[in-house]
Amino acid sequence: MTLTLPERLSRELAGLREQGLLISPRVLETANRARTRVDGRDVVNLASNNYLGFADHPEIKARAAEYLHTWGAGAGAVRTIAGTLTIHEDFERQLAEFKHTGSALVLGSGFTTNQGVLGTLLQPGDLVVSDELNHASIIDGLRLTKATKKIYRHSDPDDLDRVLAENPTDGLKMVVTDGVFSMDGDIAPLGRLIEVARKHGAVTYVDDAHGSGVLGEAGRGTVHHFGFETAEDVIQVGTLSKAWGVVGGYAAGHADLRQLLINRARPYLFSTAHPPAVVGALSAALELVQRDPSFMERLWDNTRFFKAELARLGFDTMGSQTPITPVLFGEPEAAFEASRRLLDEGVFAVGLGFPTVPRGQARIRNIVTAEHTRDDLEHALTAYERVGRALGVIGG
Length: 396
Ligand code: PMP
Known about the structure:
With about 400 residues, the protein is an alpha/beta fold. The protein has 2 domains: about 25-55 and about 295-390, Aspartate Aminotransferase, domain 1; about 60-290, Aspartate Aminotransferase, domain 2, CATH 3.40.640. It has helices at about 5-20, 60-70, 80-85, 85-100, 110-120, 135-145, 155-165, 190-200, 220-225, 255-265, 265-270, 275-290, 295-315, 330-345, 375-390, and strands at about 35-40, 40-45, 105, 125-130, 150, 175-180, 205, 235-240, 250-255, 325-330, 345-350, 350, 360-365. The longest helix has 20 residues, at about 295-315. Bound molecules: 4'-deoxy-4'-aminopyridoxal-5'-phosphate. 4'-deoxy-4'-aminopyridoxal-5'-phosphate binds near residues 111 and 249.
């Protein structure tokens, strides 16, 4: 008997429920701000990727409204057909200038950018070597290629060296890494990784979703932070949805990269361009971060303060070096229970367990933003102290 759709749905959901993996997202009842409302309660929001507080910034919203009125609600088509407006081209030039790269192209999201760029560049006979903790969108992007795929140990240049040495090829060689890893908040050792890649003639591909707007001068990103921004053997991709506060993905690098992607990347060729309001907001966001360094300063002041205070209370923040601040609980039940109790105390922070993070390393991931006040963070720390003691995660 053919399986019916209701059977498929109920079996899959029951399977997830049995494994304790069934999720339903919490709903925010305000715009995504440092303080938001969840379940009718005002809470400090430590769950967003809104690093600079741009998601609800008045200047950015004003530009979005201006572009909406001037250029319309939608772009009207796939870009190669009739969807490329002046504003799309202008923003990409602005982005390439910001990144100090020869070209830049914007795609629908960070997720589809990894699919589009990896799927376009890597061909049979090529070798791609990927960090074991790379983001799901990189893993999916690599599934689209027929290149030989190998994994190296997390942020381990010596292991990368070994893998590259053991897999010779005359095709293109590519090393793929996140710039900042989204679960632990650690920064990839890009200097050493690029050195090893170059020794083997490989290009380096950096997904800087969590480094753009956070690291490097004016938030130019992890590649800039390590001084490689103009290197032609480095490809930077990332998202426009986190620090930039809006939505979208980009690829920036060699002058010819954009032209090839325009001709080959399927998420570019077969998906409609961003609506004008998105482009307006993004263009204002890029201007704002370069004009006003106080956003990044507040982000890093808050990050240092929050991490130091959590450590003083006795929590394990897992060596994080960035505003992504995990707090280790070990077992998923403990992390989920802590997240529930924090919400009761007016703090919204999400618990993560296997398969999102390794077994035994369930945690709450906190993301500090420029928008949090000292009051917000002190409120969160008081809640953490109470919950941590109640659950026996920190001492007596
Ligand atoms: N890469 C990394 C490292 C990410 O953390 C994310 C966001 N979760 C993405 C890509 C996807 O970006 P977007 O949300 O714009 O699709």
